[in-house]
Design a protein that fits this description.
The chain has about 260 residues and is an alpha/beta fold. About 40% of the residues lie in helices and about 20% in strands. The protein has one domain: P-loop containing nucleotide triphosphate hydrolases (Rossmann fold), CATH 3.40.50. The longest helix is centred in the C-terminal third of the chain and has 17 residues. It is globular, with a radius of gyration of 18 Å.
Length: about 260
């Protein structure tokens, strides 16, 4: 199952991606966490994984990826990454780091002045994810870039479910509406997680979201905030996220999605 984690910058989507990946490992799933956000450098740190090549570097850089992607569309490539039925174990060893049982694949990053736009990274993400056959017990968690650009690149079209992370900001409420519209256009189920909640904001957040689409509410947690602030790996288990992990392990469409 491929699950896209979406939301505005600062909503906590990367934090949720890491915590959810760890919760799914505890639920006896094989988990691949895909960092598809070309500008956020924090997922590896939050997971506590060692450095490794990103996929674009491993393939020889931007120009090589462009050539491979063109060849893939013309059915002229021998690259295993672009062949249907690829397994998680087939990903290049130099690109896959592991921590707490979670495998991490970083697609690519904008790191230098003049690197160019991120469209190529989005195209690479979509192509590799479309070819990946994760099997019955594996969960692929994709940490998307902030906003809705991944919808424009149709990366979501190769996913089974989109989770929108909503924090207590009006911008996040408005983005949730746009995400729901775009998910409907793509024909992909979307559900929402309310993040950084407390009693004072939960009622306001509920006014802006369909309760049937909200599958979890995660309260603001001082330890999570402190670990992130100090650049540490996340080591706190949240029962709300573990419950979400068990729900996703059982997820099959159509189901009653309201488990909050």
């Amino acid at each position: 199952m491929k699950i896209m984690i979406s939301g505005k910058g600062g909503s906590g989507k990367s934090t949720l991606s890491v915590l959810l990946a760890k919760a799914l490992v505890k639920a006896n799933c094989e988990v691949l966490l895909v960092d598809a956000d070309e500008s956020n450098m924090g997922v590896r740190r939050l997971l506590g994984a060692a450095d490794s090549d990103n996929l674009m570097e491993n393939m020889g850089g931007r120009q090589s990826v462009k050539t491979e992607l063109w060849s893939e569309t013309a059915s002229q490539t021998d690259n295993e990454l672009f062949k249907s039925g690829m397994k998680i174990a087939d990903l290049p060893d130099g690109c896959v780091a592991e921590a707490d049982g979670v495998k991490l694949l970083v697609v690519g990053k904008i790191q230098n002045f003049g690197d160019g736009c991120a469209c190529l990274i989005g195209a690479l993400s979509k192509t590799v994810l479309s070819k990946l056959d994760e099997g019955d017990n594996a969960m692929v968690i994709i940490d998307a870039e902030a906003g809705v650009e991944h919808f424009g690149r149709k990366v979501d079209s190769v996913c089974d479910l989109i989770i929108g992370v909503v924090d207590p900001t009006y911008e996040s409420f408005m983005l949730s509406v746009k995400m729901q519209e775009m998910a409907a256009m793509a024909g992909i189920e979307i559900v929402f997680v309310l993040n950084k909640t407390d009693e004072a904001v939960t009622e306001v957040m509920a006014e802006h979201l369909d309760s049937d689409k909200v599958i979890a509410q995660i309260p603001f947690h001082k330890d999570i905030f402190s670990q992130s602030l100090h650049g540490k790996a996340l080591s706190t288990n949240l029962p709300e996220v573990e419950k979400l992990g068990h729900f996703l392990k059982r997820y099959r469409k159509p189901v009653n999605l309201n488990v909050a």
